[in-house]
Amino acid sequence: MPACILVVDDILPNLRLLEAKLVIENFQVILVNSGQKALDILNQQHVDLVLLDVMMPEMDGFEVCQRIRSNSVIADLPVVMITAFGDIQHRVRSLEVGADDFLTKPINDIALFARVRSLLQLKFLLDELNTREKTLGDFYLLPSSNTSIEDDLAYDDILLIHESGSTGEKIKKTLEDVKSKVTYINNDQDVVKAIHTHDYSLIILSLGLENNKNLELLSFLRSEDLTRRIPILLTGDESQLLKFVAGLDMGASDYFLRPIEKAEVLLRCKTQLRKSSCSERLKSLQNMSVSATFIDHSTGLYNKKYLLRYLEGSIKNAIQMARPVSLIMMSIDFIGEGTTPKTSLADIEKMMGEIGKKISAYISISDLLIRMGSHDLAILTMDTPTEVAVQFAKKLRQYLVKQSLFQDQQAIKIKISLGITSSSGANLTSGSFLQKAEKALLDAKQKPADNDQSVIVS
């Protein structure tokens, strides 16, 4: 299901213009023409992000944002303020009242979708983190803590790849003023050495490097294991907008323009560092040493008991928010296993561990991978309707069957059956949801493996 965006502006043509832009990109859009109506909507239904005009009668955007931040239920909702071009005071005031970002009129489409997508990614990570922490807390496996992402946040370990000159020095000083540790390099030859000698939380890449290989460098950073998941901010001037578009398509997280404005640089960095912090927390939850009751020893994945408890909150939230959650069940058979006496239980456990690692590297950090049985795995994926889950599962199967597994130095082939279900219906429970997925998998096992018929949707 597409993300839901609330647009707030007292001028109808502005509302319609933003609606047209967002709908084309498959977002669900709600339009309101006053601050009070916006607050009423937020108290009645689920919204993923708010685009909020500053200048409105009766209740301006600043007061609306303050009220959102003071409401514990929606306090974490991303808010983007829309200000007049060049109005520095309104930008500063937007940050003071708790806005996550700002856009200036006339709104540039590249900036609009870069801000929206970046903040939506952050929101989905925060939602997933909160759900997992609550699940572990319910099991008394996670000590209670009042520490938030904001408390842990530090503008630290930043790699700045920028041509020599005053602009690069200004960015470096801006970050160092908030106690950042910045590694500043001005040529692509030093990048490989830099990423192999230090772990970074964020990379800032200029589109004005002298050899004009900035997009090639971006492609390299996105393909390297060490930097694949590190947020990358692009910087340049307005004449390079087409390069920004290409860079965002290649996996850059966001951008900021020259001339450099300190508040804007820190704002872009803050959003990306919050995403990094969320991802690290999710990894630590997966890797933390918890009771063997909830962890499969061979693969290090959560087990079926954990999934059942996790599903209770996930299904409830999915129904309340009218958002889809899909469960992909996978049964893995090793060809020749029944006739080869050398294939022991230890061999199977080792190969399932290898497969688990390959899937973990393939799926999103917000997806939950579960060991369901000796040959069975499950992937719980949020905000994923059935048709998307089916397409994803098929691609994952194609990827896995091409991977090399070895037993006693002999290559082993695998066959995979798929059973898929998605949340629907007010009476759905975690138990019935899981039963539907298991029934679909059982039916799929009766079909020819590695064929579209072996994908059963329930």
Could you please describe the fold and organization of this structure?
By secondary structure, the chain is α/β, with parallel strands linked by helices. It folds into three domains: 4-107, Response regulator (Rossmann fold); 149-286, Response regulator (Rossmann fold); 302-457, Alpha-Beta Plaits, CATH 3.30.70. The chain has helices at residues 12-24, 35-44, 61-70, 88-96, 109-138, 149-152, 166-176, 191-197, 214-223, 241-249, 262-287, 304-320, 345-362, 386-401, 430-445, and strands at residues 4-8, 28-32, 49-53, 79-84, 101-105, 158-161, 182-185, 202-206, 232-236, 254-257, 302-303, 325-334, 368-371, 376-382, 405-407, 410-412, 414-422, 455-457. The strands form four sheets. Strands 11-13-14-12-17-18 form a six-stranded mixed beta sheet, sandwiched between helices. Strands 2-1-3-4-5 form a five-stranded parallel beta sheet, with helices on both faces. Helix 2 runs parallel beside helix 3, helix 5 packs parallel to helix 11 and helix 12 (304-320) crosses helix 15 (430-445). Residues 143-147 and 337-341 have low confidence and may be disordered.
Defining traits:
about 450 residues; alpha/beta; Rossmann fold; Alpha-Beta Plaits; 5-stranded parallel beta sheet
How is the secondary structure organized here?
Layout: E1 4-8, H1 12-24, E2 28-32, H2 35-44, E3 49-53, H3 61-70, E4 79-84, H4 88-96, E5 101-105, H5 109-138, H6 149-152, E6 158-161, H7 166-176, E7 182-185, H8 191-197, E8 202-206, H9 214-223, E9 232-236, H10 241-249, E10 254-257, H11 262-287, E11 302-303, H12 304-320, E12 325-334, H13 345-362, E13 368-371, E14 376-382, H14 386-401, E15 405-407, E16 410-412, E17 414-422, H15 430-445, E18 455-457
Parallel strand pairs: 1-2, 1-3, 3-4, 4-5, 6-7, 6-8, 8-9, 9-10, 11-13, 17-18
Antiparallel strand pairs: 12-14, 12-17, 13-14, 15-16
